[in-house]
Design brief:
Blueprint: H1 3-10, H2 12-29, E1 39-41, E2 72-74, H3 76-82, E3 88-93, H4 97-113, E4 119-124, H5 134-141, E5 147-151, E6 176-180, H6 192-199, H7 224-233, E7 240-244, E8 246-247, E9 252-253, H8 257-266, E10 270-273, E11 285-287, H9 295-306, E12 311-316, H10 319-327, E13 331-334, E14 350-354, E15 366-368, E16 374-376, E17 382-384, H11 386-399
Parallel strand pairs: 3-4, 3-6, 4-5, 7-10, 7-12, 10-11, 12-13, 13-14, 14-15
Antiparallel strand pairs: 1-2, 8-9, 16-17
Length: 400
């Protein structure tokens, strides 16, 4: 990254002006581009076994930064048709844990299509608004990936797809295609997963597949104590309710977790939570320390408990929306701000509590929250009152 790019990224208003001007110039004066036959900007490459461009080092990666709202389409079959000596795929990730979960059905489909090619994963090493290095831990558990590397990346303040992953090239072997994992997210997109299938030129399933989760054969030792506590406290209860009431993406923590957890306990449930603030002195409540338990170990804990107890989730719109779908758990999903693109993230296991009815979500899967059921957290975000959440939860549970 040159000095000008570094300066622009440090000054967002200037970056907005620069990227807007670059996009406008592209729209007005842009000439047709010759790209390698295995990807295209805003168009899908046609099938071919001819490559007019030189098969040099530049052929293996995306040629330039993207413009605003620009989409990349891949046709990896073309790469193998014109250059059969491609040695493998280097998938570059600069995303959060939930974002990664949406990619798992696509990565599985790609491995099924290209079983002999090695898949290497490259993950940003920094926590920032776009990226979580914990994605690397999940890739290490993914059986389709042979190796995982970390790179020192820098997020773009305006265009998330222009995350600087230059540092990753030091670990990418010669002959590997460098494939940033892009997805689309918008009101016109059917679903995040459908967008990914489309991006990688794979048939889009009629029914959106849930995330795929991969666990080691042996139950993780750090989770043994939590499993024992649940096995001691949950028998005789209506079930276990798992809470995830904070969101990194929206910088939100639900402020009434103490009252909500206590209300669930009073109604006859055993409660577990990864969000702090609950009644830790109550024997029917367990708070999971995420510093001791990895996210995948938490999921494996829930997968194990699901086999023994009725298990439910209450979660704000964050990673556990996707995770609950992967685990097949009923989820009372608290949509704590108006997002007209929320259908991109929804799965049928989620009953969405919302103060705004979304036309692109099934109406029967939306629970409308009247004005008296919440208070304002700030101009954008609302806090649902605990007694209303308890009422909605019982409503969801009775449908099971």
């Amino acid at each position: 990254m040159n000095k000008m790019q570094t300066y622009l990224r440090a000054h967002r208003p200037l970056c907005v002006v620069y990227e807007s001007a670059r996009w406008l110039k592209h729209k007005i004066c842009g000439k047709p581009e010759n790209t390698p036959v295995w990807y295209g900007f805003d168009h899908r490459p046609q099938p071919t076994n001819q490559e007019p461009l030189p098969l040099n080092a530049q052929w293996y990666h995306i040629a330039r930064p993207l413009y605003m709202h620009e989409q990349v389409y891949y046709r990896l079959d073309n790469a193998l048709a014109v250059h059969p000596h491609v040695k493998g795929f280097a998938f570059v990730f600069f995303m959060g844990i939930g974002d990664y979960l949406y990619t798992t059905p696509v990565l599985a489909a790609l491995k099924k299509k290209y079983p002999t090619l090695p898949f290497y994963g490259y993950v940003g090493s920094k926590f920032d608004r776009n990226n979580s290095p914990l994605v690397g831990k999940l890739l290490a558990e993914n059986p389709y990936f042979e190796k995982v590397f970390y790179f020192d990346g820098v997020r773009h303040p305006l265009i998330w797809k222009n995350y600087d992953y230059t540092d990753a090239f030091k670990d990418i072997p010669e002959g590997f295609l460098v494939i940033p994992v892009y997805y689309e997210y918008g009101t016109q997109i059917r679903h995040r997963v459908a967008s990914l299938f489309d991006t990688f030129d794979l048939p889009v399933p009629v029914d959106i597949p849930a995330p795929q989760m991969y666990f080691p054969a042996q139950f993780p030792a750090p989770a043994e104590d939590y499993l024992a506590q649940a096995r001691q406290g949950a028998p005789g209860k209506k079930g276990i309710v798992f809470l995830q009431l904070d969101s990194r993406g929206s910088n939100y923590v639900y402020p009434h977790i103490q009252a909500l957890a206590q209300g669930l306990i009073d109604q006859g449930y055993f409660v577990m939570s990864v969000t702090k603030g609950g009644p830790v002195d109550n024997k029917n409540y367990v708070e999971i320390d995420i510093k001791k338990l990895s996210i995948n170990q938490t999921w494996q804990l829930l997968a194990t408990l699901k086999q023994e107890f009725a298990l439910y989730v209450i979660a704000v719109n964050s990673v556990f929306w996707a995770a609950s779908a992967g685990l097949g758990l009923p989820n009372l999903g608290l949509q704590h701000w108006i997002d007209k693109k929320v259908h991109n993230l929804w799965y049928p296991n989620i009953e969405v509590v919302t103060n705004h009815i979304y036309p692109l979500l099934p109406r029967e899967k939306q629970i409308f929250a009247p004005a008296q059921s919440y208070t304002r957290h700030n101009k954008k975000i609302i806090d649902y009152k605990p007694d209303w959440i308890l009422r909605w939860f019982e409503q969801m549970r009775n449908k099971q």
